[in-house]
Amino acid sequence: MIAKNNIHFDKISSTNDYALSIKNHFLFKEGLIISTNFQNNGKGQYSNNWHSEYAKNLLISIVIYPNLSIKKKFDLNKIASLAVCELLCCFGLNAYIKWPNDIIVNDKKICGILIENILSNKTIKKSVIGFGININQTKFKKYNIPATSLKMLNQKSYKVKKVKKELINYFFNNLYLYRKGNFDNNKYNDLIYSLNMKRDYLIGDKIVKGVIKEIDHTGNLIISVSGEKKTFKAKEISYIF
């Protein structure tokens, strides 16, 4: 189904994959929304798989034209992550951002974000920002991070279309603020999961205790280990749940 800038499928491999497959089509423009009831090949960051029951969750990709230096690519994560946290707040939930791309409520994952960019001369020209938000699903496979959903947390069902509309509003509001130079970086930083808390992390094959101090402007994780600040890129360190 195509309605204005909204394409909805009953089933598809993944919303991000479809969006990128039409990147040269006239439909592929900022504001294009692609959603589906079910993904045959739902994926998360670094080719991790994420499974979702039919019509239970919000599976959506948003196309934007950032025209942003590749050095600022993590700003897109900030915009998307904060939008989800604000969305969940309106449902009465305290959500946190687990670096680099998951949203956590009560130490369980409720949302994953996957951003794929199209570059030209070290500039991000086009981006596909994919969200998978658990809405009404109550049974999940076992993952490294336990999963949860709106229904499990609030003991009620929700209309996925309503959540979709709210997410789009929060996302584009944050994008607008960013472009105007008014994005609240402090609000983003305050929502970092386990900020200033000592906990176990896996670095290589060693478990160490560390304290997250901040996310730097390029998206690296700054952790204090034995009193020494260390910088980590994605996949160089893992949370232990």
Structure write-up:
The protein has 241 residues and is α+β, with helices and mostly antiparallel strands. The chain has 2 domains: 2-190, 2-Layer Sandwich (BirA Bifunctional Protein, domain 2), CATH 3.30.930; 198-239, SH3 type barrels (Roll), CATH 2.30.30. The protein is 22% helix and 35% strand. It contains 5 helices and 14 strands. Strands 1, 2, 3, 4, 5, 6, 7, 8 and 9 form a 9-stranded mixed β-sheet that branches. The longest helix has 20 residues, at 160-179. It starts with a strand and ends with a strand.
Quick structural gist:
The protein is an alpha+beta fold.
Question: How are the SSEs placed, and which strands pair?
Answer:
Layout: E1 2-3, E2 6-12, H1 15-21, E3 33-39, E4 58-64, E5 68-69, H2 74-89, E6 96-98, E7 102-105, E8 108-120, E9 123-133, H3 150-154, H4 160-179, H5 185-190, E10 198-203, E11 206-215, E12 221-225, E13 228-232, E14 238-239
Parallel strand pairs: 2-3
Antiparallel strand pairs: 1-2, 3-4, 4-9, 5-9, 6-7, 7-8, 8-9, 10-11, 10-14, 11-12, 12-13
Helix pairs in contact: 2-4
